[in-house]
Amino acid sequence: CLATLIIMLVGDTYTLINYVSFINYLCYGVTIIGLIVLRWRKPKIFRPIKVNLLIPITYLAFWAFLLIFSLYSEPVVCGVGLIIILTGVPVFFLGVYWRNKPKCVNRLIESMTCWGQKLCFVVYPQCGSAEEE
């Protein structure tokens, strides 16, 4: 979010759209790869929609061509898009991966979550820790 705000202040909207579209297509491809891997490793799990594997493999071939062409034709835009994605890695490690956080960090995260819920009207805010209940 911070990187997006900086880009909005410095660059123009079309550049931001290019960064985000590269990120979207990268995520689509990773999702299709995950679909193929799950079909191969866990073939017996329930799937509400099951398609022939030829469809995701064909999509993945076109996706790879477009991604490689994008990397070749606009490496700076793709690089900035990758940097935007990588800004989420520290957030993942601080918020999800780090299990035994001090109480002050947990309180900070809870207050930021409550503030974000109130600001965006996402869900009804339940301020206070779940441990108290």
Automatic annotation (TrEMBL):
Source superkingdom: Eukaryota
InterPro entries hit by this protein: AminoAcid_Transporter (IPR050598)
Gene3D superfamilies, per the entry: Amino acid/polyamine transporter I
Keywords linked to the UniProt accession: Membrane, Transmembrane, Transmembrane helix
Transmembrane portions of the chain: 16-39, 51-73, 79-98
Gene Ontology MF term list: L-amino acid transmembrane transporter activity; neutral L-amino acid transmembrane transporter activity
Biological processes annotated in GO: D-alanine transmembrane transport; D-serine transmembrane transport
Protein name stated in the entry: AAA1 protein
Species name: Cisticola juncidis
